Amino acid sequence: MNAYFGAIEKLTLENNYFRRVLYTGPHSQLVVMRLKPQEEIGAEVHPSVDQFFRVEKGEGKVVVGEGEEHPVKDGDAIVIPAGINHNVINVSPNDDLKLYTIYTPPNHPDATIHKTKAEAMAAEKE
User: Fold this and answer.
1) For strand 86-90 and strand 68-73, is the pairing parallel, antiparallel, or unpaired?
2) Which of 33, 26, 21 has its CA nearest to residue 2?
3) Residue 99 burial by CB count (10 A; 0-12/13-18/19+): exposed, middle or buried?
4) pTM, whole model, 2 decimals?
5) Phi and psi (nearest 5°) for 14?
């Protein structure tokens, strides 16, 4: 197992995929994401996975629990403990929301690339 080194801000800003796993370790996983205008991750709960988000570009909102909404923008960090319902939504009608996330423990197969949200949804059904 090797350590990961990368220019995370540059990689996040250059990412044009819905989801791209950059690194998977035994206890964590680094993923860059892009939400198109008005796109959202979709409400989800990870029963045994904590999740950290960092917004690098754009404006959005994070909905947690029973509808508690928090606006987010470039430079904001969000930590979602395991078992908490959450969603990340790009509120812009024109601009991408670019962010990276760290799952602890890993949540996706290593080296996963989902070019679109539809591709990600199809893979999760399998």
Assistant:
1) unpaired
2) 26
3) buried
4) 0.95
5) -85, -15
Q: How many CB atoms lie within 10 A of CB 30?
A: 20
Q: What is the distance between the alpha carbons of residues 90 and 83, in angstroms, rounded to a whole number?
A: 23
Query: Residue 59 contacts by C-beta under 8 Å, 6 or more apart in sequence?
Result: 71, 72, 73, 90, 91, 92, 95, 97
Tokens representing residue 71 in the block: 């606006």
Q: Could you tell me whether strands 97-104 and 29-35 are parallel, antiparallel, or unpaired per DSSP bridges?
A: antiparallel
For residues 99 and 27, what is the distance between their CA atoms, to the nearest angstrom?
20
Residues 80, 50: Cα–Cα separation, whole Å: 6
pLDDT digits (tens, 9 = 90+) for 25-69: 999 999 999 999 999 999 999 999 999 999 999 999 999 999 999
